[in-house]
Design goal:
This is VWA domain-containing protein. With about 375 residues, the protein is α/β, with parallel strands linked by helices. Helices cover about 45% and strands about 15% of the residues.
Length: about 375
């Protein structure tokens, strides 16, 4: 979600910098973040004071280049972001990420840097883009290594407490029945319980027939973390038996990326972050993909700020639910699960039968498994 339009005085304060604060008033917390981002860039211009342009205090900037890129994509509209990025590269020569191959090759891969690459890959020349792809691949590998384990555990089946298992593994361990059957071996003097016969449960499969999972991913700039984890989640689900996974990215247009769902690196490099949002159009496309509503789950990953018709979005979600399909809405899908979303729209969708949450990928895997099992 972009920065709310500030008042005229706040805009003048952002333009002129800290010296204008006595006349314009202090900045709001949200505008302070925008001020820091502007200062990080335009504070490099030594001649700005002579021209009467903004200038701020002497405190050091806490932003790295990747942090700055991610911040401006969260705070500013698309046209402002494009101008800031253009000034950064062409006016101030800030090339640590978008032009300097040597720096890009030696920098430590991280999710923060991955977000920055996704925001700026359209500015990279082919040689730098190839190096950036390697960085993306390494970060995705790390995320997938963890997420694949969480997905496998969630979909490996539920414990059947009526039957015992010969597979003595931790996830099948029945703690309560083991304690109950070994209570006679408790030693009061040592205050210890000695286990002679640990009990393990067998497991039942959570799904016997194929399920269709349709992931609708909002490409707006504030959803970049969710886009990353959705791409990896889709690849993990793709590998499961009995699951047909589709991944669809949208802004004001809808792009079906299912052909690349098994390769999250390629998928992420095709994502175009930013722009408007037409959620209803994406849900309409999902409706066209649903062949067996009773075996279909539509997962909408979005901040629910509808740029199109809110009424149309609600109507289409209602129609999906009434057809028998499951509709899950995610306001955030990343390691922190910190949502910022349109709560009014989310509440309207819940009233029509959708289920809305914000969660980590591991929690989504468990939620999907529970929905499929029900």
């Amino acid at each position: 979600m972009a920065l709310d339009i500030p008042s005229p005085l706040q805009r003048w304060r952002l333009l002129l910098g800290e010296p204008a604060e006595p006349a314009c008033g202090a900045l709001s917390a949200e505008c302070q973040a925008a001020d820091a981002a502007l200062e990080w860039l335009y504070g490099r211009d030594g001649d700005r004071a002579a021209r009467g342009e903004r200038r701020a205090g002497l405190g050091p900037s806490a932003l790295s280049t990747p942090d700055w890129i991610n911040t401006i994509h969260e705070l500013f509209p698309k046209e402002v972001i494009e101008r800031l990025e253009q000034d950064a590269v062409e006016r101030f020569g800030i090339d640590e990420v978008v032009t300097n191959l040597e720096v890009l090759e030696r920098i430590e891969p991280s999710e923060s840097l991955l977000r920055a690459v996704l925001h700026t890959k359209h500015l990279m020349n082919p040689e730098v883009l190839a190096a950036a792809r390697k960085l993306v691949a390494e970060v995705v590998r790390r995320i997938m290594e963890k997420m694949a384990t969480e997905v496998r555990q969630a979909f490996s089946g539920t414990r059947d407490r009526r039957r015992r298992s010969r597979m003595k593994i931790a996830r099948n361990f029945d703690f309560k029945r083991t304690i109950a059957s070994n209570l006679h071996r408790y030693d009061p003097a040592r205050r210890r319980l000695y286990l002679e016969s640990p009990i393990f449960n067998s497991r039942t499969r959570r799904h016997l027939e194929p399920w269709d999972i349709i992931l609708l991913i909002d490409q707006s700039g504030s959803m970049v973390d969710s886009v990353i984890h959705s791409a990896v989640m889709a690849a993990c689900l793709w590998q499961l038996p009995g699951m047909r996974t589709r991944l669809v990215a949208f802004d004001t247009a809808v792009v079906d990326l299912t052909a690349d769902v098994s390769d999250p690196v390629e998928l992420l490099m095709k994502v175009q972050l930013g722009g408007g949002t037409d959620i209803a159009k994406a849900v309409a496309y999902a409706q066209s993909l649903v062949a067996n509503p009773g075996r279909s789950v539509v997962v909408l990953v979005s901040d629910f700020y509808e740029g199109g018709s809110g009424g149309e979005l609600v109507r289409r979600v209602k129609a999906l639910v009434e057809s028998g399909a499951k509709v899950l809405g995610l306001a955030a899908l990343d390691s922190r699960a910190e949502p910022a979303f349109d709560r009014e729209m989310a509440a309207r969708l819940v009233r029509e039968g959708a289920q809305i949450g914000a969660m980590t990928p591991g929690q989504l895997a468990g939620w999907l498994a529970d929905v499929i099992q029900a």
